[in-house]
């Protein structure tokens, strides 16, 4: 990752043309070749950018970035104020949503939210295609695999279906039923889940973590 | 199959049956409406494995038969037909609907794949249609709409001899209604069921045409997990909800410190007016003193409103605040000219009941328990 702070003007020549007049800006040159020009505001959107694959040619006071379509980002540099490079390595990627992980922890502690008499086998129960969030037994002793999502969409149902298929091959725990638990379940996902014999449960995050509003209630 | 039927009769029957068609059918045939013509009668059915509906109308049958067509399409078509007799006939894999000079040709769905509708559970008893509809409407308003507590989205139906009790709660209010019915099945002395509130409400409203509604439950206890309703040639069954309904009877306070009597209509008008300035989730405050009820809403720098109306008070004076929507729904549900409200303290639930006039005794037929809102400061 190369960070350059420079007084520069920028011209974009491609499907449409754009011009940024001279001003101090941050230019990021990333390992994949992408170049983006940032002003000192907003969190995510550069003023101008070129996505990879593209090539950067550094000339005398003029940088030219060209992509495969022949579009050009021309940065005319008047003064370099800062220029450093840092080796960041490979990013581990976005880790599992904090709320989702917390929901898993809370639900494992309070399986009675799914049904009276349910007992935990383990969290993150391993399968050959990745761990299933919770494996437990219902009151009748039937094994249940629980997939937890913040927003329950079709993808989550597909994921649980794959886990169930593999888990049901294990004669020691089969038959394994599925529970799809989420704070909000999309109607499409619900239809698919019910059609596959998977039970849908809507989770109340605040109730699970005991931070319910202080409104007076009957019970 | 070939039959002829009056346009209004057809449109009405199709609209009623199509109500319970699934919005997202898991199997294509479930989007279908089953038409069966036999013995001068046209029977229409829909089913989505949760709710089934079956209605029959008189029709001139030229050729008996059964066919499955898209329910939504048939409902849209039949309600926009001109007011002339409608002739429906099959032609190979197509159904033709002719009315006046309008002609529609619809593809059929494979009728042999259509699931059999569940049988009506053993008939259990009957109640007048309008009594049933009114009772269900009074109770269903208090049912929860939040899927995180599925058992609260239902209405609990309890049968004890010739008495039926309906109850629903969303944790902020609880509505309980009792009515008499005529038990018909032997040995059905007590039964309980948890019926999805929305289905129950829709069903009760649509069965008021008949003199009486048959309610059918599987005997002994919850049994097959199904309840059926039948009246005026229409029949609906629905799957019951699972889960433990809260022990609601214990929620009613044993005694009250204060009993207020207010005429319902001026009370409703005043609440509506005053709550205009109540922002979302802010309460309307009620102060009861002898002969007078002062309603207030809004506070601080925001818009404020107040109004005073007549009220009779027995016991201690009290100031208490309620969610205006829950208060109005309760006042409307008691369905009486005079409302009686019993209080314990400003943080304990209040009981609303109705009575025909100020002097009369309040009845326990319908009770609406409402939780107050805590007042800050």
Structure write-up:
The complex is a heterodimer of chains A (219) and B (377). In chain A, the strands form 2 sheets. Chain A has a 7-stranded antiparallel beta sheet, with no helix packed on it. In chain A, helix 3 links the parallel strand 11 and strand 12. Chain A has 4 helices and 12 strands, in the order βββββββαβββαβαβα. In chain A, helix 2 runs parallel beside helix 3. In chain A, 22% of the residues are buried. Chain A is α+β, with helices and mostly antiparallel strands. Chain B has 377 residues and is α+β, with helices and mostly antiparallel strands. Helices cover 17% and strands 43% of the residues of chain B. Chain B is built from 6 helices and 27 strands. In chain B, helix 1 runs antiparallel to helix 2 and helix 5 runs antiparallel to helix 6. Chain B is elongated. At the A-B interface, helix 3 of A face loops of B.
Q: Please state how the strands of the largest beta sheet of chain A are arranged side by side.
A: 4-3-2-1-7-6-5
From the helix content, strand content and strand pairing of chain B, which structural class follows?
A: alpha+beta
Number of helices of chain A: 4
Question: Shape of chain A from CA axes?
Answer: elongated
Strand content of chain B: 35-45%
Number of strands of chain B: 27
Please, what is the average pLDDT of chain A? Answer: 90
Q: Rg of chain A, please?
A: 26 Å
**How many beta-strand elements of chain A?**
12
Tell me about the biggest sheet of chain B? 14 strands, antiparallel
- Characterize the main sheet of chain A: 7 strands, antiparallel
Helix count, DSSP H or I runs of 4 or more residues of chain B? 6
Q: Low-confidence runs of chain A (pLDDT<50, min 5 residues)?
A: none
Structural class of chain A: alpha+beta
How far is the first residue's CA from the last residue's CA of chain A?
57 Å
Strand order of the largest sheet of chain B: 5-1-7-8-9-6-2-3-4-18-17-16-10-14
Query: What portion of residues of chain B is helical?
Result: 10-25%
| Rg value of chain B | 25 Å
């Amino acid at each position: 990752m190369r960070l350059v702070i420079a007084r520069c003007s920028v011209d974009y020549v491609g499907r449409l043309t754009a011009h940024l007049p001279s001003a101090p800006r941050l230019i990021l040159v990333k390992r994949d070749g992408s170049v983006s020009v940032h002003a000192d505001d907003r969190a995510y959107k550069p003023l101008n950018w070129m996505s990879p694959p593209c090539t950067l040619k550094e000339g005398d006071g003029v940088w030219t970035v060209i992509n495969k379509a022949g579009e050009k980002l021309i940065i005319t540099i008047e003064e370099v104020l800062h220029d450093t490079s840092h080796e960041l390595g490979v990013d581990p990627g976005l880790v599992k949503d904090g709320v989702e992980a917390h929901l898993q922890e809370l639900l494992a502690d309070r399986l009675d939210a799914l049904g009276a008499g349910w007992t935990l086998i383990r969290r993150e129960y391993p399968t050959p295609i990745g761990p299933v969030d919770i494996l437990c037994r219902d009151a009748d002793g039937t094994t249940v695999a629980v997939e937890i999502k913040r927003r329950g969409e079709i993808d989550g149902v597909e994921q649980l279906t794959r886990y169930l298929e593999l888990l049901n091959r294990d004669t020691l725990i089969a038959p394994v039923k599925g529970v799809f638990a989420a704070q909000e379940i999309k109607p499409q996902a619900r239809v698919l889940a019910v059609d596959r014999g998977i039970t849908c449960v809507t989770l109340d995050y605040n109730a699970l973590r005991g931070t319910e509003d202080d409104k007076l209630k009957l019970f | 199959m070939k039959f002829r039927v009056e346009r209004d009769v057809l449109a009405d029957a199709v609209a009623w049956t199509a109500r319970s068609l699934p919005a997202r059918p898991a199997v294509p045939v479930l989007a279908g409406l089953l038409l069966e013509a036999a013995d001068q009668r046209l029977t229409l059915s829909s089913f989505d494995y949760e709710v089934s509906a079956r209605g029959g109308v008189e029709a001139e049958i030229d050729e008996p038969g059964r066919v499955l067509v898209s329910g939504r399409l048939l409902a849209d078509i039949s309600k926009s037909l001109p007011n002339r007799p409608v002739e429906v006939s099959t032609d190979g894999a197509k159904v033709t609907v002719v009315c006046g000079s309008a002609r529609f040709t619809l593809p059929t769905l494979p009728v042999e794949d259509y699931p059999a509708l569940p049988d009506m559970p053993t008939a259990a008893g009957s109640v007048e249609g309008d009594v049933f509809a009114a009772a269900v409407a009074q109770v269903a308003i208090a049912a929860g709409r939040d899927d995180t507590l599925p058992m609260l989205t239902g209405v609990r139906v309890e049968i004890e001899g010739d008495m039926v009790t309906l109850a629903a709660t969303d944790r902020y209010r609880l509505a309980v209604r009792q009515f008499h019915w005529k038990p018909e099945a032997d040995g059905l002395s007590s039964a309980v069921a948890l019926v999805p509130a929305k289905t129950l409400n829709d069903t009760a409203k649509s069965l008021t045409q008949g003199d009486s509604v048959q309610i059918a439950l599987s005997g002994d206890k919850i049994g097959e997990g199904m309840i059926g309703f039948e009246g005026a040639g229409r029949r609906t069954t629905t799957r019951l909800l699972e889960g433990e309904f809260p022990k609601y009877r214990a929620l009613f306070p044993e005694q009250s410190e204060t009993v207020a009597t207010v005429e319902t209509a001026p009370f409703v008008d005043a609440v509506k007016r005053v709550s205009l300035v109540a922002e979302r989730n802010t309460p309307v405050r009620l102060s009861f003193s002898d002969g007078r009820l002062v309603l207030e809403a809004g506070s601080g720098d925001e818009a404020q409103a107040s109004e005073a109306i007549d009220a009779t008070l027995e016991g201690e004076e009290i100031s208490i605040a309620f969610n205006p929507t829950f208060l109005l729904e309760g006042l409307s549900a008691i369905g009486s000219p005079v409302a009686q409200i019993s209080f314990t303290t400003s943080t304990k639930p209040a009981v609303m009941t109705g009575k025909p006039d100020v002097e009369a005794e309040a009845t326990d037929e319908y009770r609406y328990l409402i939780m107050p809102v805590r007042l800050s400061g």
